[in-house]
Write a structure and sequence with these properties.
Rossmann fold, Methyltransferase, Cobalt-precorrin-4 Transmethylase, Domain 2, five-stranded parallel beta sheet, 38% helix, 17 helices, rod-shaped, six-stranded mixed beta sheet, 19 strands
């Protein structure tokens, strides 16, 4: 082995089996080993008795580098050890900086090691499967405002993010701030995993979500990994980030049309102003924006609490078997595959010959007449409005008179006369689940897509729309 040389090596996170053969070979042969005293316990059984070990405490990195050059200049073979990989928050950069400063002729060789985030990732499953970054929260050498800018960039760019030095006795609040910043652009359901003492006897592993991630469970020996928008938890314990953002599109069961819809939903989600929308409402909102390309839907889509989930459950359980719409255009937009899959009938009375007769007799609109007929034949259906405010007002009147009890209401009539008022009229019916597109906006296509969001809510967790295209 060449004398007067410095090897800078990473000894991995702690377990002997995680030290590379090349690093083991160097440790066994060098004359001097320099490192932080805590790390020597992980290599004590492989160091030769005659090897000189120079151990120092925390924040003595420069002194360790000086020692390494002193012994190397004295024609000794020196090994400088770092935990994990020496080039990732380790000693390698400092050794090269000192070589430059000294204008030294000492040869330097860096041998890679398994980084703590790599070990943690392997224990969590496969969270680093796509683009990722690593951020240290230590502001000892980096100003906090710069760290915060990096956090914002990582979160908004949808990187899987590994966090080093997440917390210490003196840095108790920074991890809370990181969580706050991530929640500004990431879904609360984003998977988070953390590993304490990765690869060591005290090892602890846990998965959760960004919403429920508790910084109080973290200490300086912990690596935190935050997934991206495609990361998911498998069997509640394993984090997986697919290699491609839309790798599911390679499945023969996923059509080209569905692949495009999936990509569109991912884009819409990334551009939402409010990242903390509950999944139930978000699923309906994503459908609404996808259909209209109108992000104002984020401001005007009103939903009762868990209305999508509740109505979906009633369809699955067979408690709702019929959907009534004000116009046939709404019928055309509801997924036929979903209707067949769930055994649901959908009907508009607009073309029913009885509707025209009743409208003429009572001097009301045909859509009003259609709702009167529907109320008699399907009093417990889901009622959907995408065109006619008069039809929605008729429904409200019939509910007031206790002529029917709809399973739910989707109110998206469009126009300028009585549109706003018709939507306000249904709000007092607190016992009836409802989705409302407030204001003048609406339309048959919008009403239909809101129905589709209910019929496919079981795909919401994976953000995988378009199953019935």
């Amino acid at each position: 082995m060449q004398k007067g040389k410095i090897f800078v090596v990473g000894i991995g996170p702690g377990a002997k089996e995680d030290i590379t053969p090349a690093v083991l070979e160097v440790i066994k042969k060098v004359d001097v080993i320099v490192g932080y005293k805590y790390y020597f316990q992980f290599i004590s059984d492989i160091v030769r008795k005659e090897t000189l070990c120079i151990d120092t405490g925390m924040k003595k990195e420069r002194e360790r580098a000086q020692d390494a050059f002193s012994y190397a200049e004295n024609n000794q073979t020196v090994c400088v050890i770092s935990s994990g990989d020496s080039g990732i928050y380790g000693m390698a950069p400092l050794i090269y900086e000192m070589k430059k400063e000294k204008q030294s002729d000492i040869a330097i060789e860096v041998l890679p090691g398994i980084s703590a985030f790599q070990k943690a990732a392997s224990l969590l499953g496969a969270p680093m499967g796509h683009d990722f970054c690593v951020i240290s929260l230590s502001d000892l050498l980096t100003p906090w405002n710069k760290i915060e800018n990096r956090i914002i960039a990582a979160a908004s760019a949808d990187f899987v993010t590994a966090i080093y030095n997440p917390k210490s006795n003196g840095r108790y609040w920074q991890l809370y701030r990181l969580k706050e910043l991530f929640l500004e652009t990431r879904s609360p359901q984003t998977p988070v995993g953390f590993v304490r003492q990765a690869g060591r006897a005290e090892q602890q592993i846990k998965t959760t979500t960004l919403e429920f991630f508790d910084p109080e469970e973290i200490d300086m020996f912990t690596i935190v990994i935050i997934g991206n928008s495609q990361t998911f938890l498998y069997e509640k314990e394993t984090m997986i980030t697919p290699r491609g953002y839309y790798s599911e599109a390679k499945d023969e069961k996923v059509s080209v049309g569905q692949e495009i819809m999936i990509r569109s939903f991912r884009t819409i989600e990334s551009e939402l102003k409010n990242k903390n929308i509950p999944l139930d409402k978000k699923w309906a909102l994503l459908h609404a924006i996808h259909t209209t390309a109108d992000f104002d839907m984020e401001n005007i889509l009103f939903t009762d609490d868990k209305v999508v989930e509740k109505l979906h459950s009633q369809f699955i359980e067979g408690k709702i078997t019929t959907i009534i719409t004000d116009v046939t255009m709404v019928v055309a937009g509801i997924r036929k595959g979903a209707l067949e899959r769930l055994g649901i009938n959908v009907k508009s009375y607009l073309s029913d010959e009885r509707t025209a007769i009743l409208a003429k007799e009572k001097n009301i609109t045909r859509t009003q007449a259609g709702i009167r007929l529907a109320a008699e034949e399907h009093p417990n259906a889901l009622y959907v409005f995408g065109n006619a405010p008069t039809a929605l007002m008729e429904l409200c009147d019939l509910i007031q008179k206790k002529k029917l009890e709809p399973a739910g209401i989707i109110a998206a009539p469009v126009g300028f006369v009585n549109v706003k008022e018709s939507k306000q009229m249904i709000k007092p019916f607190l016992h009836i689940p409802k989705i409302i597109v407030e204001g003048r906006k609406g339309g048959s296509n919008l009403a239909a897509t809101l129905v589709n969001s209910i019929l496919t809510f079981d795909d919401a967790g994976q953000l995988k729309p378009g199953r019935d295209l």
